[in-house]
Amino acid sequence: MTPTPSSLAEVLRQAEPDARIGWTEEDLSRMRASATTMAKHLAEGADVYGVTRGFGPLVAFPAAESAGEQGEGLISHLGSAQGEPLPPEVSRLVVALRLTSMRRGYSAVSVDFWQELVGLWNRGFTPVIPREGTVSASGDLQPLASAALAFAGQGEAWVSDGPGRWSRVPADEALARLGAAPVRWSAREALSFVNGSGVSLAVTLHNHQQVEDVVRASAMMTARMADLLGANPQAYAHGVAEARGQAGQTAVAAWIRSDLPAGAERAPSRPLQEPYSLRCAPQVLGAVLDQLSAASRILLREAVGTTDNPVSHGDEVLHGGNFHAMPVGLCSDQIGLALQQVAYLADRQLSLLCASETNGGLPPMLTPRPGAGSGLAGVQVSATSFVSRIRQLVTPASLTALPCNNGNQDHVPMALNGANSVAQAIELAWLVVGSLGVGLAQLAALSGRSEEAGPWARIAELSPPLDRDRPLAAEVRAVRDALAEEAARRADRWPLPEL
């Protein structure tokens, strides 16, 4: 049997350009047994949703006599997704999740057809998947139907133009480049493919990884700020974390300590206790890590499970609701709420840097020319705007559910809507991170810290001292990118703690 991923990192690696979906004879045996159970069930005259009966509220009516007509009708009527496409790497993960779900042997799909899809995916075929238009209740129907239509030669596909470079072409052209014919979807295979949480799950997995890195960047900046200001390092002591016993807090405190100079002490000019945005960073960021750790276990189970309907189990064909994406939706909502706390913390730390009362008596807005210059005033206002917009975006999507489908889908999770919004919020959170990073570069310059090495030396180059006002938008983005790269590099030595 093909090994099951044991971490989210392993799941995400399934979508890398050189990744391949494989199988063992045991996998194929399970799949064949599942398909045999379905065939036996049908031969006995039993009804099967989507195969002998219609879809959704139309289950009361018989299906088309042709399995091909039924399957093509399913992906055609669901071809209503809209909006900007998911990034290619997310689209590849979407398809990988659906194909590995089918491989488990509960989906009763044709082995030959499954191998045809896997062959195309392994050769790089990547559908263009619009991100809007599903309630994620019967799975992410519309976006997954767009992927299915691409395999059938309709819509668009991504074509790799080299590492990290992609272009969009008509799907039939992408298939022709591979020397492949469009696939023909039959009823069971089409339903199994679209009836799952693969799109909301793929986006949420990428969001989860990004928020982990945002937390790492925030811990780096907290340590840098504490060092530059001479803040009391006791706030990050192991004893404080040990006394409480929270795994996330313990991890973040250790991360911050590892970035502080050996023997760091409180500067005589600093208060015994700093404002909460500096002193309580381990508690805030640690709480976020704990939420990410909890979500990672739920998302991993979803990624290695089977989320379509009906399922073949033993000698039974069981009708249920495994396609309902509530586990993903609630995780996504919580990730968004946690992200907001990180962005809010960074915004408050930037505020400390901009006020003479808390930045060590340096000029307000960290300008060397108060009055003639305004320094970081514009950057700080923009950061505040970003946090406000993040709060709008991370309002839990699960609170916005509406019944649809003639009352058949009367409880829906809106998981992909939420995941899409969180993805937008993450982009803004990184801009808040970049804004604080620029602030720290200016704090270092005004403090005479020009001897720095490592990532902070690079950031000093990207945001040189302000001798007079200049537009800082590009510097915020450049510093953001540098911090994001450094945070990703630290993932192995600053891992997500286990609860």
Automatic annotation (TrEMBL):
EC number(s) recorded for this UniProt protein: 4.3.1.3
GO molecular function: histidine ammonia-lyase activity
Gene3D superfamilies per the UniProt record, alphabetical: Fumarase/aspartase (Central domain), Fumarase/aspartase (N-terminal domain)
Pfam families tied to this protein: Lyase_aromatic (PF00221)
Cytoplasm among keywords: no
Matches recorded under CDD domains: PAL-HAL
Alphabetically ordered keywords of this record: Lyase
Transmembrane recorded as keyword: no
Name this protein carries in UniProt: Histidine ammonia-lyase
Lineage: Bacteria, Bacillati, Actinomycetota, Actinomycetes, Streptosporangiales
